Amino acid sequence: MKRQSGFTLLEMLAALTLMAICSSVLLVAFGQSARSLLQVAHSDRLSHAAVSVMDQEASGPLAAGVRSGQLDGIDWQLRIALQPTRIGQPHLFRLDLTVSEGPRHASFSTLKLRAAGAGL
């Protein structure tokens, strides 16, 4: 009798099952990666808007208070507070910026120093 070589039906089913499981794992990993990239893109958009607002609003005279506005569909609110200093010392301001776009929010803070006697 001639011996035939090849795969049995059971071996083929086992190979297909293993391939399906591996493919499922890879698809889940690619999906999570795509979601992560989208979150990073939104975060970058908020960060760039924050830098623009801080540069624009903090370049001129500063006064304690709240400012708000919108930049390319991103809402922002800037709180400026004068920090206590000694008489004759430069004025120190704390700037707290909140930017939001839909359900996403980000907060940023910095300190700015202005010479005493100059326009605040």
UniProtKB/TrEMBL annotation:
The keyword DNA damage does not apply. It is a single-pass membrane protein. Pfam families: N_methyl (PF07963). Coiled coil: none annotated. It comes from the Bacteria. It is found in: Membrane. Keywords: Membrane, Methylation, Transmembrane, Transmembrane helix. The keyword Membrane applies. InterPro entries: N_methyl_site, T2SS_protein-GspH. Its main location: membrane. This is General secretion pathway protein GspI. The lineage of its organism: Bacteria, Pseudomonadati, Pseudomonadota, Gammaproteobacteria, Pseudomonadales.
